[in-house]
């Protein structure tokens, strides 16, 4: 079996802050990992952690490039090994490599903790590596890797990969892969039928901007559109007009109507930028989005966008060379995959961004033209979940993912603070209900506690509050998950 060409392009319009300082390079942020395989590839969660094949009670992922698609209930088919063997395995973050056993490496992470990665041959020499650097090649099938070629990866709280089982971590929080929703601890889920509510058979696609006609947009000084800028500007230009920007991706291996659990634009930031920037992200309503070019630039393609739109409020500081990802674009992509003309092996998707209300003018991200400087351009990471049939139900039900949003900062008494649970989602697209509660801190009157955006007024300076968000899906057994967020004072 072989992959045939499919193309996907996504459009986005964003609003960004003015004024950046170049030359200050930052490490990968304190949270997040890159996928351990190259852009343009899709790998499958052949075995989720806490699986029944070999991992016992350990958190671990086995990834394989089975070209047949999602949902296999075994690992080790002949074509799986053939497609996985000798593929490059890349460092998910900055760190220091040491050898571990005969076919694994330990990556001591600069952000803390370590990753055990195998089964590899031609391993890189021990020493420091940057995120995205080659760690080695996937071994051919042999007794040490269970008889099939695949990537094994574990996250550990301690350095040097010496953690006990109790210290092994789920791929969540600071060990979340950029663009991939949290993979929570599902150890208490009942596997009946096998692998229900397990991240087993999940597809992870890592698509990259492949040429200069795949990202484009206007310049902040004059809004003139071009393919040649070294950065893609997001937000508004100096006249106050919207900066329309677009990113196009090819070969999204989603079958017509398949569930797109999550999608995210992952990019390299240019900085320094701060302040709040609101962006609105849509997809072009087409399964054959064309490359950008003269007369066919993002600003020319405002018509025919998806009804689904994603609001993204950017509040964190950006530096040159850091990695960031957008909130979940699953519903935006799902609208395109559901089109009647969507073809698995011949499609193209594009994302457009436009500006919302902001306190800053613009921000910018690295474009394809700066790729030779080892600052990678945008990628599109798409996750598809396998679901199992349930007696009397049309499909299985996967655990929803709650996100209480980033830490909130206030600077004075009586200040209105708005929480943000909008990044919560359900992999099966079931309807979610929201319930916020206060966990700690002086009691406050929380308004809108059953909405994604509750709010309250702060009390005295120096007080810290913690809130929990529980989301419940409408699927089989009404599964739920919980996330917390801190609100603290920057009292100067």
Give the gist of this structure:
The chain is mainly beta and 492 residues long. The chain has 2 helices and 30 strands. It has helices at residues 78-84, 330-337, and strands at residues 7-13, 41-47, 61-64, 88-90, 95-100, 104-109, 114-118, 120-121, 127-129, 134-138, 151-156, 168-169, 203-208, 215-218, 225-226, 231-236, 242-250, 262-270, 277-283, 310-314, 323-325, 348-355, 362-366, 379-384, 408-410, 416-418, 432-440, 455-457, 465-473, 480-489.
Cα separation of the termini: 62 Å
Helix % is under 10%
Strand content: 25-35%
Our count of domains comes out at: 3
> Could you describe the largest sheet, including whether it forms a barrel?
21 strands, mixed
The low-confidence parts are 1-30, 69-74, 188-198, 388-395
Morphology: globular
Q: What is the overall number of helices?
A: 2
Features:
492 residues; mainly beta; Glucose Permease (Domain IIA); Immunoglobulin-like; four-stranded mixed β-sheet; 2 helices
Describe the structure.
The structure is a single chain. With 492 residues, this protein is mainly beta. It has 3 domains: 7-32 and 206-384, no CATH class; 41-175, Glucose Permease (Domain IIA) (Distorted Sandwich), CATH 2.70.70; 408-489, Immunoglobulin-like, CATH 2.60.40. 3% of the residues lie in helices and 33% in strands. It is globular and about 65 Å long.
Question: How is the secondary structure organized here?
Answer:
Blueprint lengths: L6 E7 L27 E7 L13 E4 L13 H7 L3 E3 L4 E6 L3 E6 L4 E5 L1 E2 L5 E3 L4 E5 L12 E6 L11 E2 L33 E6 L6 E4 L6 E2 L4 E6 L5 E9 L11 E9 L6 E7 L26 E5 L8 E3 L4 H8 L10 E8 L6 E5 L12 E6 L23 E3 L5 E3 L13 E9 L14 E3 L7 E9 L6 E10 L3
């Amino acid at each position: 079996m072989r992959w045939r060409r499919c193309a996907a392009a996504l459009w986005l319009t964003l609003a960004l802050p003015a004024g950046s300082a170049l030359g200050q390079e930052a490490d990968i942020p304190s949270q997040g990992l890159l996928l351990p395989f190259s852009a343009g590839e899709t790998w499958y969660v052949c075995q989720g952690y806490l699986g029944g094949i070999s991992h016992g009670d350990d958190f671990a992922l086995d990834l394989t490039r089975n070209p047949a698609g999602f949902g296999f209930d075994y690992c080790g088919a002949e074509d799986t090994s053939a497609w996985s063997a000798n593929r490059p395995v890349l460092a998910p973050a900055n760190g220091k490599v040491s050898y571990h056993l005969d076919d694994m490496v330990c990556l001591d992470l600069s952000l803390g903790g370590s990753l055990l990665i195998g089964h590899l041959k031609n391993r890189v020499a021990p020493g420091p590596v940057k995120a995205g650097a080659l760690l080695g090649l996937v071994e051919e099938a042999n007794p040490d890797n269970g008889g099939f070629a695949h990537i094994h990866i574990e996250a550990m709280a301690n350095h040097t990969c010496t953690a006990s089982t109790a210290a092994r971590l789920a791929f969540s929080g600071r060990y979340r892969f950029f663009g991939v929703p949290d993979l929570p601890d599902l150890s208490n889920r009942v596997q009946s039928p096998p692998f229900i509510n397990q991240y087993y058979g999940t597809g992870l696609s890592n698509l990259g901007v492949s040429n200069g006609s795949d990202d484009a947009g206007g310049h902040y000084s004059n809004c003139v559109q071009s393919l040649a800028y070294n950065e893609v500007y997001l937000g508004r230009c100096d006249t106050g007009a919207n900066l329309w920007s677009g990113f196009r991706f090819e070969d999204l291996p989603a079958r017509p109507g398949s569930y797109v659990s999550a999608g995210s634009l992952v990019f390299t930031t240019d900085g320094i930028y701060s302040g709040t920037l609101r962006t609105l992200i849509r997809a072009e309503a087409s399964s054959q989005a064309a490359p950008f070019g003269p007369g066919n630039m993002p600003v020319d393609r405002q018509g025919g966008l998806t009804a689904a739109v994603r609001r993204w409020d950017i509040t964190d500081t950006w530096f040159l060379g850091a990695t960031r990802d957008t909130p979940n674009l699953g519903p935006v992509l799902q609208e395109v995959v559901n089109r009647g003309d969507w073809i698995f092996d011949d499609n193209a998707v594009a994302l457009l961004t436009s500006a919302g209300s902001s306190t800053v003018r613009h921000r910018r991200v690295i474009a394809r033209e700066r790729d030779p400087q080892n600052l990678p351009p945008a990628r599109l990471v798409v996750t598809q979940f396998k679901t199992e049939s349930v007696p009397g139900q049309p499909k299985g039900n996967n655990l929803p993912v709650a996100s209480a949003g980033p830490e909130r900062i206030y600077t004075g008494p009586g200040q209105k603070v708005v929480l943000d649970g909008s990044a919560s989602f359900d992999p099966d697209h079931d309807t979610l209900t929201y319930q916020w509660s206060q966990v700690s801190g002086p009691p406050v009157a929380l308004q809108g506690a059953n909405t994604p955006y509750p709010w309250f007024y702060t009390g005295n300076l120096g007080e810290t509050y913690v809130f929990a968000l529980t989301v419940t899906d409408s699927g089989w057994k009404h599964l739920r998950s919980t996330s917390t967020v801190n609100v603290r004072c920057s009292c100067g």
